[in-house]
Amino acid sequence: MAKAPGPGIAPANAPAPRRRPAAVRVRRAARTVFLYGAMIVALIAILAPFAWLLISSVAEPVDLLERPLSWIPAHITFQRFADLTVGNTADDSALSFRAAFINSTVIASTVTVVAMIVGTLAAYAFARLRFPGRSWLILAFMATYMLPPIALILPLYQIMSSLHLRDTPLALIIIYSSFVTPFVIWIMRGYIETISPELDDAARVDGCSRLGALVRIVVPVAAPGLASTALLAFLLAWDEFLYALIITQTNASKTLPIAINDFIGRHGVDFGLLATGGVLAALPPVILAFAFQRYIVAGLTSGGVKG
Question: What is the pTM of this model?
């Protein structure tokens, strides 16, 4: 009687495992090399301007004007950072930059809060309620967001002038909220639709109103989506340039993009101050992104999962 092979031992007459043809292995290796090479090229193309921005912010003017350009400056200084943040109180450009930094922080934060509150309420209504014209109304909101800013400059300028709000932070808060809120509605509507309506039904059975279900159930579940949407809304208000350029004239309402643009003079450009201002302007969004990284990643990855 033939003895059965032990565990893990193939029978003597078992076919040998098939090996992949060499051509298949070569194609897979070539595809992997191509993908990694393309990724490296993309990273270099994306990160190189930021690296040069950092280098220019600490390099002396003589290093920025030398040819050929060097990625490692011979002279490094942090004086520009000190001048724009804590020192050089007699310099108008430094004072303007600090005032603009405060203005941008207040305006962007206020716009984010307003847009998130109004946008989340509207998004919940669009996602859960059924009413006539629902589809057309959401498209109308998005149409206002997609209008080119140059087409709205003149009417908005006239409206703010008639309301005596020109050259005030309130004017920018109103204008920014008008196009950030539709963006929040569109993003949060899609995210809330991924949350099971049964959670709302269970809350309403327990005695919650629609608003109570939103606050107690939907908002905690949608926290990752809220965090990522809030960051994007903050960036939209923080980086806006055209409306601020037309509406503001003095340090009382100028924002950071306008203050950085003022470093470009009629007869010359201070590349060092431009780079330093750019680095300082990029710090708040970067800090927020790192602080809420866990929620942002969760919001971006779970938004496409139905359930």
Answer: 0.79
Task: Spell out the per-residue pLDDT of the chain, length 307, in tens.
Answer: 555 555 555 555 555 555 567 777 788 888 889 999 999 999 888 888 888 888 888 888 777 777 777 777 777 888 888 888 876 555 677 888 889 999 999 999 999 999 999 999 999 888 888 878 777 887 887 777 778 888 888 899 999 999 998 889 999 999 999 889 988 998 888 888 888 888 888 888 888 888 888 888 888 888 888 888 999 899 999 989 999 999 988 888 899 999 888 887 665 677 888 888 888 998 888 888 888 777 766 655 554 444 4
What six digits make up the tokens of 220? 């905690």
- Looking at the structure, tell me whether residues 221 and 162 fall in a common domain: yes
* 3-class SS of residue 59: strand
Q: Which domain holds residue 49?
A: 24-65
Chain centre to alpha carbon of residue 43: 18
Number of domains the chain contains: 2
Residue-wise over 52-76: b if at least 16 C-beta within 10 A, else e? eeebbbbbeeebbeeeeeeeebeee
Q: 144 and 262 in one domain?
A: yes
